[in-house]
Design goal:
Structural class: mainly alpha
Domain HTH tetR-type: 10-70
Keywords: DNA-binding, Repressor, Transcription, Transcription regulation
Pfam families: TetR_C_2, TetR_N
Helix content: over 70%
Number of helices: 9
Mean pLDDT: 87
Radius of gyration: 20 Å
Shape: elongated
Organism: Massilia hydrophila
Protein name: TetR family transcriptional regulator
Number of strands: 0
Order of helices and strands: HHHHHHHHH
Length: 206
């Protein structure tokens, strides 16, 4: 019986997250109330509070669920690849982010919500902190590859690995934002590959 109750609670939690994701995408985070989410999920507000402290906690749980495929893909890359060329490892990371945004609907929708549909007001201030943390982790990972490349003499002399990592994230973030805003403008994987290769060519020692 306890096992069934736990399973039912998990189903309810997922239905709340699904409803929140859908409403956040349609009308933005600040305009969506917990009552809106409860009604869309077919539960009471009490059920939402049983699972989530507030809207910010709900958003962060939605973010965690959506980024799981990204985390798993990065783990696969870390386990499989050869690090003889750290710049190619960096390329793999950047292209994997683009691929998951194209292929995984939930990841794409949550990225859209986080970048285009969120007003950073006090009610969801934890969302700002969470996004800042996520960006910092990505830049740290990217800088790790760049530092390895620098140690191997593969970067242009005088290259700042921090600035290069920040620029690389801005590049990926900008590609995704513009593609999500109007997907018919360009092929994210094709153009993304060209832009990333140009970026890396500018960093590589001649």
């Amino acid at each position: 019986m306890a096992r069934k109750t736990k399973a039912e609670a998990a189903v309810t939690r997922d239905s709340i997250l699904d409803a929140a994701e859908r409403l956040f995408a349609e009308q933005g985070v600040s305009r969506t109330t917990l009552q809106h989410i409860a009604t869309a999920a077919g539960v009471t507000r009490g059920a939402i509070y049983w699972h989530f402290l507030d809207k910010g906690a709900l958003f962060n749980a939605m973010f965690d669920r959506a980024k799981m495929p990204m985390d798993e893909a990065m783990q696969v890359l870390d386990n499989q690849r050869d690090v003889k060329d750290p710049l190619l490892c960096l390329r793999d990371d950047m292209m994997t982010v683009l691929r998951i945004v194209v292929e995984d609907e939930k990841a794409r929708r949550v990225f859209e919500i986080a970048t285009l549909k969120t007003e950073f007001i006090d009610e969801v201030d934890s969302v700002r902190a969470r996004r800042r943390e996520s960006i910092a982790l990505w830049q740290e990972r990217m800088e790790g590859h760049l530092q390895q490349a620098q140690e191997k003499g593969m970067l242009r002399p005088g290259t700042s690995t921090l600035a290069a990592a920040q620029g690389g994230w801005i590049l990926v973030d900008g590609l995704i934002r513009n593609w999500i805003f109007e997907p018919t403008l360009f092929d994210l994987m094709a153009l993304g590959g060209t832009v990333i290769d140009t970026y890396l060519a500018g960093l590589r020692a001649s």
